[in-house]
Amino acid sequence: MDSSQTTASAATGGVPAGGNVMMTRQSNDASPVESSATTAGTAGTPMDDQKQNLTEVINSIQKTLGVLHQLSLTVSSFNVASQLPLLQRILVDDGKNPDEFTRDMLNGCIAKNQITKGKADAFKSMRRHLLEELEQAFPDEVDAYREIRAASAAESKRFAQAQSMLPNGDVKVKTEI
Question: For the whole model, what pTM was predicted?
Answer without folding.
Answer: 0.38
